[in-house]
Amino acid sequence: MQYTTMPEIDKLLQKAQEVLMFLKKTTVTERARLMHHIADAIEALGEELLLTAQQETNLPVARLATEKARTVFQWRSYADAVATGNVLAVRIDTALPNRMPAPKPDLRKTYLPVGIVTVFCASNFPFAYSTGGGDTASAIAAGCPVVVNAHSAHVQTSVIMAGAIAAGIEKAGFPASVFSHVISEGFENGQYLVQHPLVKAVGFTGSYMGGKTLYDLAQKRAEPIPVFAEMGSVNPVFVLPKKLKADPKKLAEQYAASLTLGVGQFCTNPGIIIVPDIPEFDLFLDTLATTVTETSPAMMLHKGIAGSYHKNKQATITQPGVSVLAEAANTNELAGNATVAITGKDNFVHNKTVAHEVFGPFGLVVKYHSTEDAIAIAQSLEGQLTATVWAETEEAGDNRELINLISEKCGRIIFNGFPTGVEVCYAMQHGGPFPAATDSRFTSVGPDAIQRFARPVSFQNWPDSLLPAELKNENSLQIWRTVNNELTKEHIVL
Amino acid sequence: MQYTTMPEIDKLLQKAQEVLMFLKKTTVTERARLMHHIADAIEALGEELLLTAQQETNLPVARLATEKARTVFQWRSYADAVATGNVLAVRIDTALPNRMPAPKPDLRKTYLPVGIVTVFCASNFPFAYSTGGGDTASAIAAGCPVVVNAHSAHVQTSVIMAGAIAAGIEKAGFPASVFSHVISEGFENGQYLVQHPLVKAVGFTGSYMGGKTLYDLAQKRAEPIPVFAEMGSVNPVFVLPKKLKADPKKLAEQYAASLTLGVGQFCTNPGIIIVPDIPEFDLFLDTLATTVTETSPAMMLHKGIAGSYHKNKQATITQPGVSVLAEAANTNELAGNATVAITGKDNFVHNKTVAHEVFGPFGLVVKYHSTEDAIAIAQSLEGQLTATVWAETEEAGDNRELINLISEKCGRIIFNGFPTGVEVCYAMQHGGPFPAATDSRFTSVGPDAIQRFARPVSFQNWPDSLLPAELKNENSLQIWRTVNNELTKEHIVL
């Protein structure tokens, strides 16, 4: 393996900085064109990509093919979002020279790239949250050159993807340093990047430990920089009594399916289910135990992930008041065997270790007796990417206090469903209160993810000929603009 | 003076937390109504407010009256911005149950308040950036209860303003703890607030020292929270040769007027002017010297500000290569006497002390000889709230590299004008790259300031009857919404 050296990183960043000045001058239309070229190049990648990724991550080819299609869709939909002005909304206030007591100047606000963005790849999504994933696509959409730090668990996949991105950039006629690829042994390169004066923002998807370390490094810089770290969560599922009563068996089967999907290796995996102690509780529990026991163990992403799964699971199930309900058989320490345990409300609320994320197919059933119990459980939760409520519609209406409290803790709240499956669309919020993410005001999925890497700049009293295209009187890009408080696509006639 | 104790702060925050759950359930229309009531109450304040503020800050009554009107306008325009959906833009993607390979869920994204916001007041704007100022208005617009830490330099003004806000809240029928007022001796209360687990965001306007200290405290919390600190800057003015040649006398007079406006106590004060060494340079300099010498010194905001002005000015003018060009006479150490000094490009670029902000009526002329000089000066700058270019239109077109570089360093870029005067409108960007502000992606002035204190939350597959009003199929609030990628005010028909 040829690792990137720090002097090489310096050179990559210096070139990227030159390209930043070039990208600043491109219009949203030109950046959208670039992004479609990159999407084409990724789309054209064939079996080599899928098989390499399969070998490096143990993920099935069918799942990887879907993830690749999603990755391509991210590039295209983010490109459309900037090109239409739906994201990075332009604001224009025209002058009022006769206003009293002072004239109002002409002010026009657009967005500039924050600067070079460093992206850290996720082990569990080699395409969609990695080299050519959502962070890279949204940073380039904002006009930022990107330096990707490849994930050590899927370097070859990363190299292939980097090649496609480079080809797309070349085809579009953009300078190569829009995108750079760093291969690292250990953590030093990553830390060097986050502390480098030319790097102005960071995108990260992974563990709390990894994300928080980078966040702290970035805040300690002489010039602190924004770090968007998506660090996962336990994604609690609250079940209300009438819904449990309606079909305990089906709920248990569906929960087990969501919990064990992809060997539980999703940051939205529903690791905790809060279930009322009513007569149907036993049937729910029996079905869950049976279904989980019958799940075949499967290879996890890599040795480190598997090791952590078994260690963290052990730490939880050996806590006082926690008992194992069911555990699928396992003969391979690199595989994740589905496991569910059970505990009570008091134990969950008072012992923080019990509520910690176990990345993998591990579920914890928390039994509760009353609405007050459920509220206490919700209150004890840390920030989550998602939370889910299973309830009859009327029942949910009667439990608004609980549901309000749950929504306080998460970025996405699901009704009678499961959180695995993160749709790429405008209405997606993938993020949440700390520690699910480092900044709950942003999403890392959907076109609004672009907002993480753009900063507004106002132009005051500039001649029309010198303004960026999106701010000129003539709306040649045909984007949505807020002109004197009204959304419009009209030209401005002064 | 009755100072607030820490146990009292705890109680205020506990009550505010209860109100947060109440505010979460209010619609944007209801919050807008509350804000207009507060605006009414502030508007109704009369001479007592103005005279108290005048006594505490030495600011003239006429200026204070304008600032009060601006403050009222902030409440009203931010109220309208949330009520129309122009800020906190709702996104809706309806379900595609038959999509392959997997159905698409119904997703609807709105905004929740981040939680209790603590606001620190500015010494130089007792109304517009203080107790009832832009931070408070934008936090309440986002649905956040606010705890204001009064500025020690204008506590009585703050008390009067807090009374008006309380009256407005009562009139609107909202709970009192939407707004709380803390009076502090020293810094302990402020630090306690920023570190309190119930506080979820901070707004600050003031010095670099103050803002950075609070920022660092907030990042060291177990749960880091966003701090938007606007910390001022030197707001460089770049003059290009043809423009100087056109009218050196008028430019010097206008610059002096902007520099000394309000005893130079604006965060947008143009503390540095970069002027080409052409024959007209001498006339520019002579006029500037004469105008500045003739400026009457005036009382600064308070003793601390005046002391810092004289100390910091002294530190700059005693640097090697810096010489005083003109200094208005002064007999009162509490007054700020306008002063201009001059230095050369090399000295400016290599000695960071020379480029430091001197808060008050102090200007530094930096002489340059070539476009390369001007580029080097621009490159050496830290992040700025504003930067200004004086140029003929054609000349500016010929200097795009320089202007691009300047825009890279600031939040607002002005053409042939001066940065003092911060318009309250959608297109305003008041903020900028660090150290002008702690997060360049947000503004503290204009309706978009609300975005600092709101976080998106997605509702997945919720029954229409249980959705927040702004997300229901029927668009009863008549707000702009992005529905299936298109901006519309239409109802949704499924």
From TrEMBL, chains A, B:
Q: Coiled coil: which residue ranges?
A: none
What keywords tag this UniProt record? Oxidoreductase
The protein's matches in CDD domains, at most eight in alphabetical order, are given as:
ALDH_KGSADH
Q: Which domain of life is it from?
A: Bacteria
Looking at the UniProt entry, the stretches that span the membrane are none
All residue ranges annotated as the Aldehyde dehydrogenase domain in the record: 4-423
Position of the signal peptide: none
Protein name, please? Aldehyde dehydrogenase (NADP(+))
Question: What organism is recorded for this protein?
Answer: Terrimonas rubra
Q: What is the lineage of its organism?
A: Bacteria, Pseudomonadati, Bacteroidota, Chitinophagia, Chitinophagales
